[in-house]
Structures are given as structure tokens and as C-alpha cells.
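Batch 3, record 17
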Amino acid sequence: MSANRRAGSKKKPASKARASGTKGARSRAARKGASGAKSKRASTRDPKASLFSRLLRLVLLLAGLGLGLLVPWTLWLNHLITTEFEGRKWDLPSRVFARPLSLFAQMPLTASQLERELEAAGYRRADDAGQPGSWSRSGATFDIHRRGFRFDDGFQEALRFRLTLADGRIVSVRDAVGTSLGLMRLDPAEIASIYPLHEEDRTLITIDQAPDLLVQGLQAVEDRNFKHHHGLDPRGIARAAAANLKAGRTVQGGSTLTQQLVKNYYLENDRTLPRKVNEALMSLLLEWHYSKAEILEAYLNEVFLGQQGNQAIHGFGRASEHYFGQPVERLQAHQVALLVGMVKGASLYHPRRNPERARERRDLVLASFEETGLLAPGEAATWQARPLDVVAAGARSSNRYPAFLELVRDQLQRDYREADLRTEGLRIFTTLAPFEQQAAEAAVTHGLKQLAERGLDPELQAALVLADSDAGEIRALVGDRNPRRRGFNRALNARRQVGSVIKPFIYLLALEHPQRYSWLTRLEDEPITLTQADGQRWAPANYDGQSHGSVSLLEALVRSYNQATVRLGMNIGLNELLRKLQSLGVTRALPELPSTLLGAAEMTPLDVTQAYQPLASGGFAIALRAVTAVQTADGASLRRYPLRLDPVPQREAIAVLNYGLTQVVEQGTAKALPGLLGQSVTVAGKTGTTNERRDSWFVGYTRDRLGVVWVGLDDNRPARVTGSNAAMPLWAGLFRQLPLQSVSLDLPEGASWRWVDPLTATLSQADCPGASQMPFVTGSEPSTRSNCLEQQEQDADSFWRRWFDRD
Amino acid sequence: MIVIELRRGTVNGLLCLLLVTLVGCAGRSAAPVQEQEMEQRVRAPAREDAAGIQVYPLKNPAALELAAQAGEAEMQGQHDQAAVLLERALRIQPRDPELLQQMAEVQLQRGQFQQALAFATRSHDVGPRVGELCARNWRTMGLAHERLGQTSASRKAEDRAERCMVVRPQGL
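Prediction for the assembled complex:
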């Protein structure tokens, strides 16, 4: 380099002069033709030697110039190529998966639920379930071909199986030869991706993963001489030109795969001459440094294959997932042909936007596969008869659950940096149940429409949380009246007063003191005036404006009497309530004011779900989860979020409280619920309404599902809503679509069922008038007997006496 | 460095020995429960105690399949894998006392003593509270408390295990 420069500078003046002289001679020679060579000057020197030396000097000069300019430039390009290509690391979006659907005999499931799950998981309905990722149905029998999938507990192979349904249940799950299968787990729906900031969507593949037909077919169509050229292929350009001329349109491109890769990888998309030169040089350099396989693998991952919303799809890995719901290994010939055809123009031949053009192009590619011997003679025609076989648009990864995804991000951000989520290609396993999510969305949209029809504000907003109460896993989440809208997520972020939804925790505290309280304890439902911390006086009224005098603890809860509840709460202590909520997992600080006893405290729907989860699970607190596991891009386990239980003390009081909440539904403020549900199951629930009817809440749970619904207006205006007129119908709209199991009323140690006479708060018996059975924490049972019970015991007593006194 | 750590370990050990009669050795030093110890201290005595009092709850075949796989993983010493499989089984049958107890035992072997306590407690809450399962519940809790250095709670739990055959449980 430095030697060159020195030599150049020394000879500079001389070469300049010679250069002009040579140039003059050449142009003269050109003008005068061969005869001009025989000029007068020729006599002074040997003409042949002179021409030769001039030509030699010309070559040397050009070489010198070339070395002076081209060499540094080439070296720079070389540096660019090697550093970028060797250190190449694509930013990979993280993939987010729903919970996998497990299928087993006797499991409650309807055909439409199953179809919705299959659709969400990107399964394609076909005449037969020949290919993984497809299914067929005949009556109540489904043939399903599940895809292979890497779960957090290992790889699960693709498998074809048959499922029979009857009466809303799975009757049998059998494999291809009819053997009964105990448990069948489908691969999960891919519900979202977290994209790099430059919005490139990509799933990396190795060249070994790509089917032979793809690797060879790509060369057949794009670059037939790929194996032999050194980056550029003049013959290829000529052949392409000839083929295009013959066909009357462009059927082949002239650029080699290497050039295309260079274009995609390093260069701006302009068509200037310097760019062409760069492209050529870089192609030669790339071929000099790297093997054909390395170049092809990079190409397979880099090539642009379509736009989906904001995301650019790059590479065959993602393209096959996106268009066919299949990993690239599984593609069939006609699918390979479509993708190979799309290389030429991904939007022009987009199978969803331009299906006819795409099909034409695909058929042409198939023909060229056959022509080059990649397909047997006549085979192309068979594949050409096949439809495009692309999965429905948006079946995969269109981020259709924005509210849930926000929760996923919240949970992940505790352990991962945003940048890693966007670029490391993590595989994130979540708890979302696609079918339940769809049911929840429908319940909110439809429910609000009905409320508007009944004269309520058409701008009413709603939020919904559905959780598996035993596992603490969020199954569905809705944060807006339009569930697909991104934006303010009320389920996570709307802090609203909770009203009577807070009351059960006061009653729980009471039940934890068995010496003082049971369901039969009398409370005064009478006017009460308290002084708040700010000196203001507070005189809560009941919903119906009446005071009800002496009422039992159970009645006060079931009918949601405010005055009785405030008296109870003041006896127990405000601090106790705040501490209790904290111990159940509510992290939000609530105001230490008497009005908090009636729910003048703001919580989000998710907070409320967390508070009720230990009740719904029978006394085991679990931090609510949206993510269960995270893997690296190649399937290694990175982190699990396992099921962790935290037993709450005095679980017997929770079990007794659960009975009280079933009575709210059976005979109290939520007694319209069974009619709305249309199923006879025992549900525990609580309504909530706030001042001037600004907020409507309903919290309800069955044996395995806990649902929380809020309805109100964003600007907190009075909305004429109550717990039972707005949130409860939405809750019922969701739960009536789910398989329901009655809430468990089994009691743990420390509580028992007793027959009592509620009016006199005495022990009674099944056949006594007015007797009812209810649970008591040990030590809180009535100590006296009802007249009826005493009478019966006397009768029994006298029976024995008579028996023994007979003689 | 190694020497210092060794010495610290020895000091800890001595302190433990010193304190064991008073409060037991708490914290990091507690080792996961080995398969053999599990058999000797939880399962075998529970079987013996049971003496014919048995409750066999109906089990879902899918959950059963997963529980069997978890059992195999456990036998091969793959306790994390066993826990993952049991978690799947519990998603299908969250209140199956047998599954919960199996999970409690796996947690003992993973050295997750709080979780062992929690799952055994839940199994007891929803279980028969009598017979072999009851005894396994309490023996698991006893062992977990012991490893956590909670000696008196551990003793109480072992006592309760004895009474699984004698005392009629409340609330039934």
C-alpha cells in the first residue's frame, strides 16, 4: 500500500505526459485507420515496438490507477463483508404462545369450542387431516393432525388422532390404529410476537432444515449456475434474457443469489451504477470468503417474502409459518413453489392479496421444477391442481389479544430487558385460553350492546379478568369495550372504587373470630355516623334507603346492608381489613378511612381478581400469572414460573365465607344470576355498586374459574349502573359459554356443617321446621338447642325409657 | 479462599450441632430429601399406619398418565421434570389429594420445603384426612418443618401422622 503510493507519486509527472501522448496516438490511429499507422514518425522508431510498449504502458497505468483507487475500496468492502457476515446475528422477535389445549376422555368440550381452538392455533380445515396442522370433521368426529412442537417439558412429535364428542364432552381420543390415548396435547396457538424496533419478522432456519426441493428449486428458478459461478454469472444473465425474451415477460432474473443476498443485506435500494459495481465486488468477495452453503443459508433467512401489517417477513422459516402455519421442514411441493415464486415479487405474488397471480406464478415455478428434473415428469400437473393451501389471514401472530399481551409484558419486564424481548427470539409460554378469551370478548361486546339497548349509556366501558383460581393463571383478559383496540387497558390500569366488592373480606375477618361471630350473630342495621380522618362526618345509607334493624351476619352479607357492615367493620378494625387484603396479595395501598369499609377505595379489576383468588381456591394464595415458562430461540429452558402455593391461615373461615357468597347468588343481591346463566350450578358471587352508580362490579367463581367484571364510564360520571344490572349480565354472558362446575363447599379441618334454626340461633335438626344447614368454624356453633331439637331428644329419651321401663 | 470457606462451613456445622437441641439447624444447610429417606420416613410408615383404612378417590385417566410419568421422572432423579409434569396434572385435576401429595414429596426432594409444606397442607385440606394419605401428608409436613429448622412444628406434625388412624377427622 505505502510502497505503491510512493512509486505512484514519483512517477506522476512522467506518466501524465505519456498518458496524453498515448491518448493522442490512439485517437489518431482510430481516426485514420490502419494506414495512419504508417506515418512519418514511424520512420524514426520501430512502429511495432512502439505500439506494444504504448499498450503495455497503458495497461500498467490502468493497473496503477486501479490499485490506487480500487484496492483500498475493495479492502474496505472486504472488511464490511467479513465483519458483518461473520458477526451476523439477526434480531429475532419473541414468540408468544397460548396455553396448549389438553384433550382427554370425559373432558367438557363442544364442537364449536374445539373449532375455535383449532382456528386460533392456525390449523387448517381439509378434506383429510393428512398434513400436520390440518383437521377434518365428520359429524361429531374430528380427525386432527397435530404438529410437532418443543414444549418446556420436551419435544412432542406430530401425531394424527381421532376425537369423538357427544353431549358437550369428549367421548374418546384414539390414535390412527384405534388405540385409546389417555391424554392428547395440541401444540399451542401462537398469539403474538414481540418485534424488533425495525419491525423485521423472522424465524431462523439452518440449511439442513430447508427441504431439498426448496434449496434446489430456488437455484432452478433464481440462479441455475449457483454451484459453479464465483458470485457473478454472465451466462446466467444471457440465459435469463433469452428466456424472458422467449416468454415475452420476465420469468427469470439475471442476478445471482449471491448478488441478491448482497443487495438485501448490505445495500440501499437504489439502482445507480456505483451500487451495481459495489454489488458485483461484494458478491465476488462473499464467494471468495464463504462456502456456497453459508451463502445459501443466509439467503434463506434474509430474503423478503411479504409484508404483514407493520412487519416485514424475512426468510423462508417465517414465511412458511406465516402462510402455511407449518415449519419449513413440513412444506409440500406446491407450497415450496409458491414461496420460491414469491422471491421475485413478494407483494405482486402475495397469495392472500393476489391469489390468482400467485397461483399462476406458483404453477410456472412448478413447471420449471419439473423441467429441471426436481419433480418427476407429470408430477407438476398434480401439484398444480392443488389450491394455494394458505392458512386464514391473521390466524397466527397478528397480536389480536392486546390487553393480555400487556399483562405478559408486565410480568416479563420483571426479569427481562425490553431489548432482549425484541431481539433474542425468546419463546414465551402464557396462560391464555383462546376459546375462553373469545368467549370473554363476545360477552363484553354483546353485553354492552344489550345494556345500550336497555337505555344505558352507549359509551359504557368494561373490563374483564378470567382466571383459573387453583393455578392463579389468567385465562382471558379484556380491557376495552372494543377488545382488539390497543390503548388504555382498564383491566390492568383503571383504578376504580370497588363498592361492596370489599365487604366479603370484613365478613371473613369476623368468621376468623369464632368466639365472637358466626353466620347467626346478630348485627344492628341502624343509622350510624362516623368522623373521617379529615374531620368530615360520614353517615352511610343502605341501597334501598331503609334500615333493617337486627339482622344476622349472613343476611347482612347476602343483602349487602351498608349500615350493618360498617358497624361490623368498626368493631373489627379498619387496620385489620387493610392487613387482610395485603396478606391476600393486594399490593395497592388503600386509604385508612371508615369509608373504605364500603369500598370507597380504588382498585383495578386485576387487583380485585388477586384479592378474591385465595377465596376461590379455598385458602391458597397464588400470585396471578400470565407467563408459565420462557425458552431460548432454540428451545432451551430459560426460566419457569412454577405453581407456588401459599396457604392462608384459618382456611376454615374462607370455606365458611364461600358458603355465604353462594347465598348471595341464591337469595341475595345476585339472585337474578342463575336465570341469566341458564345452568344449575352453585356459584359464589358478590355485586358491587359505588356512589351515584358510577361503577358496576361483579365478582363470581365456580369450582375452577374466577371472573371479575367492571362496567362504568371513563370520566367517572354517574352511569346509572349497579352491580346486578351491568357487570353481572356481562359475567353471566361469559360463564354461560364455559363448562361450569359447582363451587366446592367441602370444609377443611376446623369447620363443620350443622343444622340450625337461624331465627333463634339454636342447634336444630333436618326435620325441624325452619331448620337449615350451614357451615360453622369450630367453636362458633350455637350452644343452645332449639325447642324442636329438645322435644325430639326428649321423645327419643322417653322412647328408650319406655323400652327399658317396660316391665 | 477454599480454606476460609471450609472453616466457615465447619463453624456453621459446630454452631448447628450446638443449637440443634434448642432450635434445630435452619436455612441453607438443609439438604433435599433423598429417595431412600422419603421411603423410610414418609411412605413406609404411612403404609404401615394405614392398616386397612383406605380411600381411593376416582382419578381422571389423563391426570393419572401424567402422574405416572412424573413418578418415572422421580425415580430417575429428575425432580424438576416431575414437578413440571405434576403441574400439568394439577391443571387437569387441581384438587386431587393424591396428586397434591405426590407434588409435596417431589418438592421435598427438590429441597423446596415451603412448597412441600404448602402442597401437603392442600392435600390434607381436600383429602380424606384419614388413612395412609393423611399419614403421608403429616409425615411430609413433619420432614419439611424439620428441614426448615422448625422442630416443634415438626414434632407436632409427626404426632398428627400417628393420629390419622385413631382420631375421627372433623367436618366429615
